[in-house]
Amino acid sequence: MKIPLYYIAYARSGDKGSNANIGVIARSENAYLFLKEYLTSEKVEKFFFRLKIREVQRYELPNLGALNFILKGALAGGGSLSLRTDAQGKALGQAILEMPIEIPDELYPLGEIPSSS
Amino acid sequence: MIKIGNAQAFWGDRIEAPAELLAEYPDLDYLTLDYLSEVSLSIMAAQQIKDPDLGYAHDFIQVVKSLIPFWKKGNKVKVIANAGGLAPRKCAEECVKILKEASCPLQIGIIHGDDVKGIIKADPADPLFNNLDTGAPISSVIKNLQTANAYFGARPVSEALIQGADIVITGRVADPSLTVGPCIAHFGWPAHDFDKLAQATVAGHLIECGTQATGGISTDWLQMPHWKNIGFPVIEIDGSGNFVLTKSSAAGGRVTIETVKEQLLYEIGDPDAYLSPDVCVSLSGIRLAGRGKDRIAVEGAKGKSPPKTYKVSATYWNGYRAEGTLAIFGRNVREKALRCGQIILDNVCRSGYQIENSCVECIGAGDLVPGIAETVSWNEPLECMLRICVSDHRLEAVESFSTQIASAVTWGPQGITGYTGGRPHIRPVYGFWPCLIPAESVTPQIEFKRS
């Protein structure tokens, strides 16, 4: 089945010079094991195809159930030179959580989907 | 165990926050206040050109004023702030003035010596000064070099505290080092005790952005139960370097495994090489555990010796910029907005200026993060905000742009509105230039003033 990444992960993004980083954190252990295989650098680069990224570098943090993505050159010159509204990549975390992902039915539910309280 | 809080995440944070945090935590040992981002110093440099009495974060003076009643009642909190910017001495003098007026005698430690512009200008061919991101030589921007400051570590901060400072005012000091400094001063950790320095650096990294550690900008922000008046973060750290991150129960927000993990990953690169002037930190062994409501224990950061170079944050003047917005309502708003943007840029061109850089965005129609709307297939909105931003080395070109926007309310599409802010304001552009400098060529200076 297809779900938005948000259902099984949360995220935070920001800038490092002209690069952006997005930390993607799985909402459960199973979700992490799935995302480690599924959420490759290539998929992330393709999802952000309009940002003209030079390269996506991925780091694994199994101790936090998290993946850290560095999107090189994603900020069109970076915080000081970019003319874009989101010159610091603050919105990229919310953006990646909208990525439609295909999960095997037997793995669902992978985590807790937060509900409004 | 000592308690260290943060109550300013950047120059622009709520000025009331430090006094609020101190009212919540009267037993706070140290209060760190972070004012400097990558380009803050260039903004200060521009202000200094207009008024030689500026060059530091003047918000800090108001903060000190708001803390005077606490000190006068005997509160012992020590404040560490990088508010000094380009002019730590001037910032300290201003503090001395208001503290004296209030008969509040305190010792102020001043850390300076981070200005390395002269060293870079003397030898711009040194490859260490090449841009860390692009590899370009600094000679390409040297004539427009505005500021160049080395990131000092925690040692001068701890030294100032050991020598009796109640307030430490610094120029460029690495953000987490504002927290590491008091740990070294209190626990007497030696410079090679890298695992402890790594833990304190992680603590500093977690609190340096204030409410970002306590619920602010968290993914599940809307589900946060107590969202009014989000509290600022406090760490309780012991001599082993282990610490608990928490916040006042009287304030809103929350400290959970989720908020801490998010902030741990905020603006980091390789998790095995988080670099600070004090230590090279590995986050790969970090363990988080709940210790009751709004209390998360953090352990397991590992450290190695830091690089033999200081990171330098330099900025250079790179022309002017201006941005204007117009709201548009109706069918096909995206197409209408893009056409308006094109017409405005064409009009600037007809006035004689081919603008060097421009960016047209339809905010509300998916342009904040380009390309995502197409992928996740959503319906075209009925309204959007047209935003046009330009930059150019010629002031006249940007001035021309600034005069060309308003007329769109008569030649543009029906439903174009919201032009009330006057002509866009023109600002200088400063590029950020990260590079390195050998540690031995810069020495932190410490001096004291008494109020």
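The mean pLDDT of chain A is 89.
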